[in-house]
Amino acid sequence: MDMRLSLGQDMRMAQKQILAPRMIQSMEILQLPILELQERIEQELQENPVLELREEEPELPAEADEADAREIPDAPAEGERELVINETTQNEDDFERLCNMDEECPEAFNESVSQSRGSIEEAAERKQDALANTPAHQQTLHDYLRDQLAWFDLDEPTRLMAERIIYNLDPNGYLQGRLEDILPPTATAEDLEIARTALKLVQRLDPPGVGARDLRECLLLQVRPGQPFEKELRTLISDHLEDIEANRLPAIKRKTGWSIEQIQEVVAELRRLNPKPGADFYDEPVQPVTPDVYVEQDESGRYVVRLDDARLPSLYISPYYRQL
Question: How far apart (Å, rounded) are the C-alpha atoms in residues 322 and 324?
């Protein structure tokens, strides 16, 4: 076997894209949403001593700058003299001068600060955004059922037991486990009878089927007197629920003597019942929405995309570390 090692040179053209670490970091920051970017900036401020937060100073109005630039006169005018309280006199001249100043310049004595149109619109926009992002209070299943208890004239033990049963329901509206499990260990036979009465009361509340301990009981609670195929529905739910799940219609026909068409009509009515009556109620709060950009229409009718970067703080490098 011939094995030879040789050295050689060759030319090859290849196109590669190499990203510097700084560019990779910039791309990661650009992809962050506003909330995550705020957290990233706060984290960098805590970990990096070189960065400092720039606090914007309020802009002074032009009138204040002009007033500071003026020279202070040697002698104050009549309306600018200080008021000195003299205990020996009644200070009638000073009070008269105040009345004259109030008549000549009433806006100077008005304590209410007039806001500009822009500031009023900005404040209204902030309030509107705050209301839009306020989490809506979603009524829970427990609150909905508990409010219905006020419609009944109940004694105190039954009402307390009904509330205990309500707060032991799962998100689908089922009472998991046995009724005896929610009673204290020292419960008597009378307490168990009160619990059974309270459970029947809870099962009468809306939505229909709530308070059931299994699927069969949940569906039976939703069958109302006078409902179409009431008798057939109770028969299917009580005796043939497993056959319906497996779609064994011939077996149901053989056991009941009904026709296939009649069974299909009853099954169609059965499908209108809700196997999870409490699923329409949510316990999770609605999360506020924080947009990254705004699409607004300007005065000319064109749509303008505006980045919401007003909430981001302004950073700069500390002068101390800059001089090092």
Answer: 6
Do the strands 51-54 and 314-317 form a parallel or antiparallel pair, or are they unpaired?
antiparallel
303 Cβ contact list (under 8 Å, min separation 6): 295, 296, 297
In the prediction, which pLDDT does 79 show? 47
The one-letter amino acid code at 260 reads I
Would you say 306 and 296 are in contact if contact means Cβ atoms under 8 Å apart? yes
- CA–CA separation, 253 and 243 (whole Å): 11
Task: Give the integer Cα–Cα distance in Å for 271 and 173.
Answer: 18
Least-confidence region, from 1-15, 59-73, 159-173: 59-73
Sole residue written with tokens 């000319």: 300
Instruction: Show the DSSP H helices in 105-185 as ranges.
Output: 117-132, 141-148, 156-167
Mean pLDDT comparison of 92-101, 120-129, 208-217, highest-scoring range: 208-217
pTM score above 0.90 = no
CA distance 296 to 17: 38
Q: CA-to-CA distance for 292 and 289, rounded, in angstroms?
A: 10
Q: For residue 96, what pLDDT band results from cuts at 50, 70 and 90?
A: low
* Average pLDDT estimate for 249-269: 91
Rg of the chain over Cα atoms, rounded to whole angstroms, equals 39
pLDDT at 42 over 80: yes
Contacts 24+ apart (CB under 8 A), 31-34: 33/290, 33/292, 34/290, 34/291, 34/292, 34/308, 34/309, 34/311, 34/312
**Cα–Cα–Cα angle for 246, 249, 253, nearest 5°?**
140
